[in-house]
């Protein structure tokens, strides 16, 4: 894995090409002389013929920002690590940005989020479930081909990461399922243990104590560059997992992000669905695809692991899978928040879990965030407030200092406070 960090003066520097992709690139689109990899979850940086091209595929898991300063184009995965004389600009999903020093910036829309026609050949639910599960296997399998082993899964007790674990196991891949938790009694750990026992596996608990939180939150803010409440506490849990991955020599980590967007379980998707025009199936497709345009959850996860040299794989950001899901009618994938189709499919391969009603009623909601339990909640809320101060301080730091810290090896010493 190579982080997308650099600068270029195309009138002076040598031509180059850098690609970071989820799967092996199969297709390319030629734009203004650049061969841009599409359909493979790629980010791409290249310089040739006196121009620089930056591209982020619709399904790439990490944002790419750029800024122009003193005849150089700078790019980085972190906003605060770029010159701020020009406010850093995000390369949007599916967008190519080409900079010519004399002519300035030209933007091209290359790879939009999939918007397939609604299928007219509806199949039975059983057939749809089989197609869906096979596409998940393909998405995971294609990403394994471009991944370095050993492999881990950022595991929770919810169906998203459990489906990824099932797919890896079905494909015969050895992996380490890691669950961030504050206690072995946490719902996520308990449910992950219950689910994984069905495929003969045991999750690895990554225990987080109140004493660890200062360092975890400091690094989480540094990587995530935001203090958004839910995502930041998840980012802190990811820091703990990333440090353990690094100690174990893990090179690639999978997760279940984007499945909620595909299936429409977020509240904003439900609201958008009611506002759009078209048939119910078209509105449901468009509301869900719109929810995938940002980088919030993806940046929260990816920046932490990439800083530790660990490649991130998000198989639910798969073009074939997205095309299939978005093409289904609401008879197959209902416009409901609790992912009924995904729950039905998961019961076919992992019969017992929070998606089976008797277990759900007994154990309650599975958070996936790692540590919502009472024994650590007060400390989390305290450090979330402190994180706002840390972030405000970071924004005052010289960009060169921030960039040098992102380039350096992260320090892992546990706090003794």
UniProtKB/TrEMBL annotation:
One of its GO terms (molecular function) is asparagine synthase (glutamine-hydrolyzing) activity. It comes from the Bacteria. InterPro entries: Asn_synthase (IPR001962), Rossmann-like_a/b/a_fold (IPR014729). GO terms for biological process: asparagine biosynthetic process. Residues 134-265 form the Asparagine synthetase domain. This is Asparagine synthetase B. It comes from Nostoc flagelliforme CCNUN1.
